[in-house]
Amino acid sequence: MSANNSELARVALTYPAIDNHAHPLLAEIYRDAYPFEGLISEASPGSGLSHDATTTLACYRATLQLAKLYGSNTEQWEEIKQIRSTVDYATLCRLCMQPTRIQCLLLDDGLGGVAQYAENYKWHDRLTSSPTKRIVRVEVFAENILRNVMDNVIEGGASVADRILMGKFTQTLQDGLRQCAADPEVVGFKSIACYRTGLDVNPNPDKHAMDKALVMTLLKYEVTKTIRLADKAVNDVIVTMALQIAGECGKPVQFHTGLGDSDITLSLSSPAVMQPLIKAYPQTKIVLLHSSYPFTREAGYLTSVYPNVYLDFGEIFPFLSADGQRSTVKQVLELCPTNKILWSTDGHWWPESFYLGTVQARQALFEVLSECVQRREMSESHAIDTVKRALFENANRIYNLGLVPYWPAGV
């Protein structure tokens, strides 16, 4: 660290942050419900996750950082797991969260498993100085509405021809999304279309095809009692409806882009295929999540030409190596206006995900900007302003949070 950048280091490493995309922590009784290797890999459990993930540079670095956090000298991943298992859960949460200086969490509580195993979003208020807010996952929200509609249809004994109830589903969904948008606890929506049918969402959905898809969904539901909306015609209607309502109400819509588990089709996870959708909803703020990795440059381009597009540089911490993280941050900054970048941990399940997602992001941001200052490509004050925007100010503005950064004197 250069002495000339000491103030930049202080700001980058300690300025309060708004985590604009994360998920709830596991409840104490379920603290081991998922393999801990999910902390450093998107690979599905049972697919070689435990062996392969622990041989990555990302895991080696996480092991050393967690050892230091726990007060240990171990270099072994299995020993890290043993150590954390002996720590009281409340103590573990505080130990991981206090150094992050996260002031506010925006939580998507629609992740699969949250209802069964995780704490509710308001529980997380004990970990931050500002209240936690919700992000509504629209596909899961729609599935819950459709389940209720179909239960009513089945109970009524209607024929298949009468069971389509397209109008009932879409009207109920529209009313529900509007109620969410009016709820002060809800600061935005999120779409996982990337996982379901891809990001090439049709701005003009085929309503007739949706009717047919809903009939098939109903017939399957009668047998399995499960719903997973993965038909493009249905998902396109859900996403476009959310975009319309969000635009009217001034709420951003987040999109999972890029990096994800094996459910995604990689070629359809690039935000480049979203151009028609972005153009169709110019009044709706669209946040591209997860650095769109490995399509970061495509995402940066979209932020530079469309006023309504923003880029979150999250989830690459801690999934990428340190060099990979710095490279991605550089790509974000190549073209993206600095008033349009946001940071997140994509923290979930384990408090360590928030810790690693924060300390690594702060370090990468400092190192990249410090090099720019040293090369006289920007002033230190420009770099400091960039950090403040990325960590706090942009999210505060885009999600209309109205927060004041809590940064105690002497920090």
Automatic annotation (TrEMBL):
Protein origin, superkingdom: Eukaryota
- Which SUPFAM superfamilies does this UniProt record tie to the protein? Metallo-dependent hydrolases
InterPro entries registered for this protein in UniProt: Amidohydro-rel, Metal_Hydrolase
Which GO terms of the molecular function aspect are on file? hydrolase activity
Q: Which residues form a coiled coil?
A: none
Q: Which Pfam families match?
A: Amidohydro_2
Q: Where is the Amidohydrolase-related domain?
A: 240-401
PANTHER family documented for this protein: AMIDOHYDROLASE 2 FAMILY PROTEIN (PTHR43383:SF2), NODULIN 6 (PTHR43383)
What is the protein name given in its UniProt record? Amidohydrolase-related domain-containing protein
